[in-house]
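User: I'm new to structure prediction. If I give you an amino acid sequence, what do you actually give back? Let's try with this one:
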Amino acid sequence: MERGEQVLALMLELRYHGVKDAPILKFLETVLDDIFPLDPFERDFPNIHYNHIEIDDNFLRKFVASMLCYKLNIAKNDSVLEVGCGGGLQTAMIASIAKRVTSLCATKLEKENAEKNFAKANIRNAFVVRNDFGLGWPVQAPFDKIIVNVPCGELPVALVSQLSMGGSMLYPMFDDKLPRGQYMINILRKEAEANVITPLFPMDFALKS
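Assistant: Good question. You get back a string of structure tokens that encode the predicted 3D arrangement of the chain. For your 209 residues, that looks like this:
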């Protein structure tokens, strides 16, 4: 599928799922696919509507990133923590919307590659740091939004503590009612009396070999 055809198909699919956010759609029209490598985790959305289109890794990763950013409702003045930088495409999308995004990575090489890619794309408000994913990045807390890109076996309470009051966190949570390899995408809103957790949709996760 030619890039123009893929972008059009992606727009149609996103609109079918309710995504009409202008910054997200603008990013998808302008992002250069070859700058950002594929993510180590393969994330699959089980409810693709336009099943006649050719769904390759590029289409899927842009669709998933768009859906997650849309559901998190990122605003232009938000400070965002991303847990798991991966190939950096989602980080770049967040940076095109938010005031600042700090993305956690696991290795020195991943950090160096992400920083080079952001420089190529002229992204100046995305910052990559190495730290244990479960610890978050408390030196810059609180964050308005947190997005977790790696499956969770339990609620990451350290990350919740780094949310601002009224802030939201999107994270994939283990659910024994789902088929193997699927995790429930939950959104948590931090409130003074009690946090409000809402399940959104299941998503497949597979570690690429």
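You can read the tokens as a compact description of the fold. Here is one thing that stands out. The helical segments are 3-16, 22-30, 57-72, 89-97, 108-120, 157-160.
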